[in-house]
Write a structure and sequence with these properties.
20% strand; six-stranded mixed beta sheet; single chain
């Protein structure tokens, strides 16, 4: 293996002589602690370190990255003692040693199964952000290198790795404001999840490259001339839409890639915020803006610190005096971003701008403590501690921190960031637990709205409280934030004896008042048990039948999932109160229910906490068709369904196999949607997977 130091020497030339020497020493140590059978790790070390150098990160981060696989849990070369944290701290400083240990702890996880392992890995990685965000930057660089070299991995593993990247790492890069890394991770994920669409987009973009170049050159000339006339110093650059954003537009608008025309954009960089708004007016005088396509991220920046003005215009030159007689450009949609140089640096490097090697005035624009994701993770870590449910944590992270946000205002004008789809109850608990516990109603922009209503961006939200108001079990069906859900669950478990809540299942129960009449004597066999009696109520068709169930300790009533039918969230379910094993949850159509002798007497109504939209999975076999994806999405939307995830693979010549997940408001819509998809000419068969 060629020396890592020799290979990397040119890459680190921008660093000072002292930092170059420190980095080279780190590379020498990494090379020393790569065992002979692991020499291929040299490429990985250089690949990850190169990405961090491209991010212009400080020397400490680069050194920590090259040493991340060299601690005690790795195998040194024969005859060498293992490297220790103390040795790293003594040579490179405590911050480097702490980062190396943080990265090592993330990788050194033991779990009972692969799912738990991955969930715990991500949980520890995110919690590491609280101590030093650079640990996450190293892991993101590591993931980007892995995605760039994913062709070398086993075919069976590629899709799983790409899906995890799309679900976790690309959104995480976005939340940290590193836009170029987010774009590349999304494009690489699309390449392995839906190669057919990826190649189709690549081909279309390549075919239109020359035409697009001529068009953009004309746009740049026009804007530059107008800005010069107005006395505004600018730089204009064209930008290619990344493939995944084009793919998202295809899905959102239900169009093939050839039918999309706003595949191009330009970015205008200037010196001040005042210039940004003057340039916006200039652009809108040149070309007509599209209604609803303007966003002001300067006045209200994104949670990751991103600031810019976005507008979409219809470009046409005929009315303009500077148009040449031979110009034949047709009107086209064009997306334009306007920002200052400092905003651009933050947009490209995000939180990494805090550690830029050559610090400029923008280095302090984004501080770790300014990011909501960091502060929210601090709250989570304090609430859960180092131990907790990794899988539930991961679901909360994916649904709350790594998804789109909305911004709403308190009546006093304070800006509150919430996950998309949040309700007034989420807002109330975000303000304070006591406000949520006593929430009685809500107003949005002065109008009373239901507590279950989804809040919209920039609304002014007011919570109406009452001393006798209290949390209701129905709130668990629509709240979106883990803070609200955990508080409601905790309050109900402590104060409401009418329900059992566990494992996202709500079991309805009731303890009737003690009757004055003497209860009938129990059979001798049951007398010996001397267990307390718990009465459950089952409501059906407006009637209630009360039956007795013996449990040893009501507070320890457990909820378990039946192994025979393995119910998952969204499935219609029933509960069976067993003797000594708690409540067993079955699917309503489970064939084993008929074999339980006393099921009728011991059944209990149960439901999922979030019993609104349901997720359904299905598999499609079809002949090769370029419009198949959009046709399937159209069939789902026809019945108010929403396609969450889907992929199509060419499994043989002219044959496609697809796997899809959709969200339905009503379970009965499933048959209608399946029938519609079955009617698509290219589809051979469709199979429900749950």
């Amino acid at each position: 293996m060629e020396s890592l130091v020799a290979t990397f020497s040119k890459k680190i030339s921008p660093y000072s002589a002292e930092d170059q020497e420190r980095i080279n020493t780190g590379l020498s140590w990494a090379e020393q602690f790569c065992a002979p059978q692991q020499d291929h790790r040299g490429d990985s070390i250089l690949g990850v370190a190169s990405i961090l150098v491209d991010l212009n990160l400080d020397a400490d981060t680069v050194i920590a990255a090259v040493l991340q696989n060299s601690l005690e849990n790795t195998l040194p070369k024969e005859g060498d003692a293992p490297l220790t944290r103390e040795a790293i701290a003594e040579k490179f400083g405590a911050p480097v040693a702490l980062m190396v240990e943080g990265v090592t702890r993330i990788a050194d996880i033991s779990a009972k199964n692969k799912t738990n392992h991955e969930a715990e890995n991500i949980r520890k990685m995110l919690f590491a952000m609280v101590s030093d965000i650079r640990v996450i930057l190293i892991k993101l660089a590591d993931k980007l290198y892995n995605m760039r070299t994913l062709d070398l991995a086993d075919v069976a593993d590629r899709k799983a790795v790409a899906q995890e990247c799309l679900d976790i790492y690309a959104p995480l890069a976005d939340r940290l404001g590193i836009s170029w890394m987010k774009d590349e991770l999304e494009d690489l994920s699309l390449k392995y999840l839906n190669r057919e669409v990826f190649l189709q987009i690549k081909e279309i973009v390549a075919l239109k490259r020359g035409e697009r170049r001529d068009f953009l050159e004309k746009v740049l000339e026009t804007i530059t001339a107008e800005a010069k006339t107005a006395g505004i110093d600018i730089a204009v650059e064209s930008r290619a839409k990344h493939f995944y954003s084009i793919y998202q537009k295809m899905r959102k608008r239900n169009k093939a890639v050839g039918d999309l025309y706003d595949l191009m954009g330009i970015r205008i960089l200037c010196n001040s915020i005042e210039d940004c708004y003057n340039l916006l007016g200039l652009v809108h005088r040149l070309w007509k803006p599209l209604d609803g396509r303007f966003k002001d991220y300067i006045a209200m920046h994104k949670a990751n610190g991103y600031q810019s003005l976005h507008t979409t215009v219809m470009c046409a030159w005929d009315p303009l005096p500077q148009a040449s007689p031979g110009d034949t450009f047709e009107g086209r949609l064009l997306e334009i971003q306007i920002r200052t140089w400092e905003m651009h640096q933050v947009a490209e490097y995000g939180i990494a701008s805090h550690w830029l090697y050559k610090k400029g005035s923008s280095a302090e624009l984004v501080r770790p403590g300014d990011l909501s994701i960091v502060n929210r993770l601090k709250d989570w870590k304090q609430a859960e501690g180092e131990e907790g449910s990794s899988e539930s944590f991961l679901e909360d992270i994916k649904g709350e921190l790594l998804k789109d946000s909305i911004y709403v205002f308190t009546p006093q004008g304070k800006v509150i960031e919430l996950p998309l789809g949040s309700t007034p109850v989420d807002f109330a608990y975000h303000i304070h637990s006591a406000v949520g516990d006593h929430c009685a109603g809500a107003k949005a922009d002065g109008i009373i709205i239901p507590l279950s209503a989804e809040l919209q961006n920039t609304q002014v939200v007011e919570i109406l409280t009452a001393t006798n108001a209290r949390p209701h079990v129905n709130w668990l069906r629509f709240v979106k934030t883990s803070k609200a859900r955990n508080r409601i669950r905790s309050w109900l478990q402590e104060n409401d004896d009418s329900v059992i809540i566990e494992k996202n299942i709500i079991a309805k129960k009731k303890t009737p008042p003690i009757e004055p009449a003497k209860a009938a004597p129990l059979p001798e066999k049951e007398k010996i048990l001397e267990c307390p009696v718990q009465r459950f109520v089952q409501e059906e068709l407006g009637t209630a039948s009360i039956f007795q169930v013996r449990v040893e300790d009501e507070k320890n009533m457990m909820i378990r999932f039946a192994k025979c039918c393995n119910p998952v969230a969204g499935d219609p379910i029933l509960g069976y109160v067993s003797r000594g094993r708690g409540i067993i949850i079955h699917r309503k159509n489970c064939s084993n229910l008929a074999n339980i002798p006393d099921f009728a007497e011991r059944r209990i109504d149960t439901e999922w906490e979030n019993s609104g939209p349901q997720l359904k999975r299905f598999k499609v076999e079809a002949r090769l068709s370029t419009d198949l994806f959009s046709e399937i999405e159209g069939a789902v939307r026809k019945h108010q369904g929403h396609l969450i995830e889907g992929r199509l693979e060419e499994t043989s010549t002219n044959h496609l196999t697809g796997f899809f997940t959709m969200q339905l408001e009503q379970a009965e819509d499933l048959k209608k949607i399946m029938k519609n998809i079955r009617g698509i000419p290219a589809v051979y068969s469709i199979l429900s997977l749950n």
